[in-house]
Every structure is written in structure tokens, then in C-alpha cells.
TrEMBL record:
This is MFS transporter. It comes from Brevibacterium picturae. SUPFAM superfamilies: MFS general substrate transporter. Pfam families: MFS_1. It is a multi-pass membrane protein. Its main location: membrane. The lineage of its organism: Bacteria, Bacillati, Actinomycetota, Actinomycetes, Micrococcales. It comes from the Bacteria. Gene3D superfamilies: MFS general substrate transporter like domains, Multidrug resistance protein D. Keywords: Membrane, Transmembrane, Transmembrane helix.
Length: 501
């Protein structure tokens, strides 16, 4: 079978399936790196572009919000026009937008470029899992998903490391240059190795519905980000919440009335699909925000260089990669529900360890917390993906994959907004009055206004930030526990291996 041939929509055991998996993982690596590589560059961007805390959150979230909002529509595009085609177009957009981001002269330009990158990532992600669904037989999918999850985790580690190296060598624009190179390489591998597949039913793309769900997600995230600066009752925040409700209602009505809806709402009546989807979304609120906060602690409080910060984050990915091997086999011993709950509980423990950080806490404690959080994610991820996609018909694999990714990316976007806003608010609360009020809006802003001989004020700023960070990490732990509770209550018990069909 050549890359140009189209495979039928019945699941086959493709002899080239592991090579195809490698190409898919290359595409996944490109979009995960785009999401994580920027974290270690946040302090440098704040300094070079004069970005405010809200702008920094927007730079991170512009990618994630558009990514999440367009995933369902992108899944339909992949189902209808071909998964390989959608992935290659998405990677091309990522390449070009990354180059544009590297030349950003302002925070606004960078936010716009990250928005376009989100469009490209949305086209890529649904196709990755959908290709695997059509390439692997059901009994092998949990292994394939474990490799897919491990590749994403490795990319999570590579991102900060590459980011730190590029920031030190070339400044923050370097992170986008390397992102462009990874995306361009993945385009070649996908076009060369992956066969085409599509849904034969040719469902229509609901453009108004796609816009509505994207606006709803962007509005709720923006409202959360703006609340610390303007107040929860400010007109701009209230307007964002109203727009969220209106756009969500429009999307819901369109899906209920459409003859061929973007989202089959009946899936949410499936206990397995709905339970696993909600659980992973809640967990992602915590996992999606931990690096955004922790990289500031590493570079500001511990005075790590960007490269050292990237290396310091590595235990998170090491935990995920190492535990993914066990996570792929754990369902055969204790079932999918217990695997998910166990993983979530371990992740929550890691967040609790990170909540104990003070300015004097040694790095070993940080590494332990990150390692536990990663191990928990590695244990749970294969079971989560298998449970969600197992409830979706193979012909709608793109849509099912898109929904799975939408729930996760929505959780990440909300996490950066919720936890980032909690840390910003907490910092203002704990910062002593002796610190400049304007500079006190963020730790980076404060430090830029203080001289090296103001040790007392610098230590006070460090202490205020770590106290605020503890609130953020406790919030992450609460969401991880909530995900475990949702999984335990919603998913049905199971203790058997998937049928080899």
C-alpha cells in the first residue's frame, strides 16, 4: 500500500502500522512543542515586549482557544476531505505562522500569530488519532494510544528544553524558528508514509456553528483572564460571560436542529464517553497550567536560565513516558475505570507537593512533584483515550478524536486562565504595600522595578509569589481529584481485555 492509496473505512491490520504511527507521532510532536516550548520564554517575552500578565496569558491561550474551538469542525474536515490532507495542510499553516511569530514586534502581533498557529494545530490533531483508529485493530489501539501519549509527553519535555536553548542562543524568536522546522519535517513524513482515509457519508461543515463554539470558548477564557485586572463585576467581564452564554446557546440549537450535526449530542448520553470526556477536561485544567506558573518560579525565584528551567521541567515528561508503558497494560489487570482514577490520584499528589514550595524549597521537591504529576498522567492517558474513542463509530473517528481533543484543550485554556488569574490575584493580595503598586501586578514587573540592593523587598516579592503559587497548585490538585471522582462515578466497572476484533 502506497501513501497515495486510500484505505477503506473498515479497520485493517496494516503491516506498515508502526511506521505510520511514527509519522503520526512526528505531527503530534510538532503541535505539542508549539504549545509547551513557549513556557520558558514567558519571562523573556514579558521583558522584551513589555507584555502585561493578561497579555502573557493571551499569548499562551490564543493558540489553545482557537485550537479547542475549531477542533470539532477540523475533525469533520478531516473525515470528509481526508485525514492525511487535513494534517498536511495544518502543518503547513503551523510552519508559516511560526515564521511570522518569530518576527513579532509587539505582544499584539504575537497573539495574532499564535491564533493562526491554533488554526493549523486544530487541523492536525483530530487526524492523528483518527489515522490510528483506521490503522490499528481494536486490541492494539491501547498500545498505539500509549505510544501516541508517550510521544506527546516526550514533546512536552523537548519543548521546554528546545525553548530554553533557543532563548539563550537567539532570544525568544528562536522558539518559533525551531517550531517551524519541526512542522516542516512532519509535513514531509505524513505525505510520504501515511495513507489517506475519510468518512464516506460526506457530512456538511457547519460554519456558523464552528464560529459560535469558538466565540463561546474565547469569551469565557477572556472573561477569566480579565477579571483580576477589572473586577468580576466589570462591564467587560459581564459582557464576555453574556457572549459565552449566547454563543453556546446558538451552537446547541444548531446542533439539535441540524440534519447532519457537527457533534452527535447522543454521544453524551453514552456513560463511558461522557464520563471520560468530563474527567479528562477537569484534569487538564490543572495539568495545562502547571508549567505556565512553574517556569516563572524557576526563572524568577530560583534565578534559573531558560535552558536550566527547561531541564528542570524534564521530570514531568519522564514520569509520563515511563508510566505510559504501564498505563497501556494496566487496564488488563484492574480495568479502565480504576486505571484512570489511579492516574488522576497520583497526579493530584504531585500537585500537592508543588503546593508546598517556598523561596527556599530545594529543587528535589519540585522534581518530585513534577515526576508524580507525570506518572499519574502516563497511567491514565491510554485508558482515557481508549474509553472515549471506543464509544465512537470508526467512520466518525475524526469527529470523536476532535471531541476528545476539544475537551482536553478547553481544559488547558481554562486552566491557564483560572490558575493564572488566581496566581495574579494572590500575588497582589500577598505583596506588601511597600512594593510599587503598578509593578506589583506581577513578579516580573516587580523585579524590573527593584534594584539588586533591595534584598528585603525582593525576598518579600518572592514570598508573595510562592504563596500565590501555592493557591494555584492547590487549585490544580482540587481539579485532579474532581476528575478522579467524575471517572469513578460515571464510568462503569470493567476488568477485561478488549476483544481482539
Amino acid at each position: 500500500m502506497t501513501a497515495g492509496q486510500e484505505v477503506p473505512n473498515t479497520v485493517q491490520t496494516d503491516p506498515r502500522r508502526w511506521v505510520i504511527l511514527a509519522a503520526v507521532c512526528a505531527a503530534l510532536t510538532a503541535i505539542i512543542v508549539d504549545n509547551t516550548i513557549l513556557n520558558v520564554a514567558v519571562p523573556t517575552i514579558e521583558h522584551d515586549l513589555g507584555a502585561t500578565p493578561a497579555e502573557l496569558q493571551a499569548i499562551i491561550n490564543a493558540y489553545v482557544v482557537v485550537f479547542a474551538g475549531l477542533l470539532v469542525a477540523a475533525g469533520l474536515v478531516a473525515d470528509r476531505y481526508g485525514r492525511r490532507r487535513a494534517v498536511t495542510i495544518g502543518l503547513t499553516i503551523l510552519t508559516l505562522a511560526s515564521v511570522a511569530a518569530a518576527f513579532a514586534p509587539s505582544a499584539g502581533w504575537l497573539i495574532a500569530a499564535r491564533t493562526i498557529m491554533g488554526v493549523g494545530a486544530a487541523l492536525v490533531m483530530p487526524g492523528t488519532l483518527a489515522i490510528l483508529v483506521h490503522t490499528f485493530a481494536p486490541y492494539e489501539r491501547v498500545k498505539a494510544f500509549a505510544v501516541w501519549s508517550a510521544a506527546g509527553s516526550a514533546a512536552m519535555a523537548i519543548g521546554p528544553l528546545l525553548g530554553g536553548l533557543m532563548v539563550e542562543r537567539f532570544g525568544w524568536p528562536g522558539v518559533f524558528v525551531i517550531s517551524a522546522a519541526l512542522s516542516a519535517t512532519a509535513v514531509v513524513l505524513i505525505a510520504w508514509l501515511v495513507p489517506e482515509s475519510r468518512d464516506p457519508h460526506h457530512r456538511t461543515i457547519d460554519v456558523p456553528g464552528s464560529i459560535a463554539i469558538t466565540v463561546a470558548i474565547a469569551s469565557i477564557v477572556s472573561s477569566i483572564i480579565l477579571a483580576p485586572d477589572y473586577g468580576i463585576a466589570a462591564p467587560i467581564v459581564i459582557a464576555g460571560l453574556v457572549l459565552t452564554i449566547a454563543a453556546s446557546a446558538l451552537f446547541w440549537v444548531r446542533q439539535r436542529r441540524a440534519t447532519s450535526p457537527m457533534v452527535e449530542m447522543s454521544l453524551y448520553r453514552n456513560r463511558q464517553f461522557a464520563g471520560a470526556s468530563l474527567a479528562v477536561a477537569v484534569l487538564a485544567i490543572g495539568t495545562g497550567s502547571v508549567l505556565f506558573v512553574l517556569t516563572q518560579h524557576l526563572q524568577y525565584v530560583l534565578n534559573y536560565t531558560p535552558l536550566q528551567a527547561g531541564l528542570a521541567i524534564a521530570p514531568l515528561a519522564v514520569g509520563v513516558v515511563s508510566a505510559s508503558y504501564v498505563g497501556a497494560r494496566l487496564p488488563n489487570r484492574i480495568g479502565y475505570r480504576r486505571s484512570i482514577v489511579t492516574g488522576f490520584a497520583v497526579t493530584a499528589t504531585g500537585f500537592l507537593v508543588l503546593a508546598s514550595l517556598t523561596p527556599a524549597t530545594p529543587y528535589a521537591v519540585i522534581a518530585t512533584g513534577l515526576l508524580l504529576a507525570g506518572i499519574g498522567s502516563g497511567l491514565a492517558s491510554p485508558s482515557v483515550h481508549t474509553t472515549v474513542l471506543g464509544a465512537v463509530p470508526p467512520d466518525r473517528a475524526g469527529m470523536g478524536s476532535a471531541l476528545n481533543d476539544t475537551h482536553q484543550q478547553l481544559g488547558i485554556a481554562l486552566g491557564v486562565a483560572i490558575v493564572g488569574s488566581a496566581v495574579a490575584t494572590g500575588y497582589r493580595h500577598f505583596a506588601p504595600a511597600s512594593l510599587n503598586a503598578e509593578a506589583g501586578s506581577s513578579l516580573g514587573g516587580t523585579l524590573s522595578e527593584l534594584s539588586d540592593n533591595q534584598d528585603g523587598l525582593i525576598h518579600a516579592a518572592y514570598l508573595a509569589f510562592t504563596q500565590a503559587q501555592s493557591i494555584g497548585m492547590l487549585t490544580c490538585a482540587v481539579f485532579a481529584v474532581a476528575g478522579a471522582v467524575v471517572a469513578w462515578c460515571a464510568l462503569t466497572p470493567d476488568h477485561h481485555r478488549p476483544d481482539r476484533t
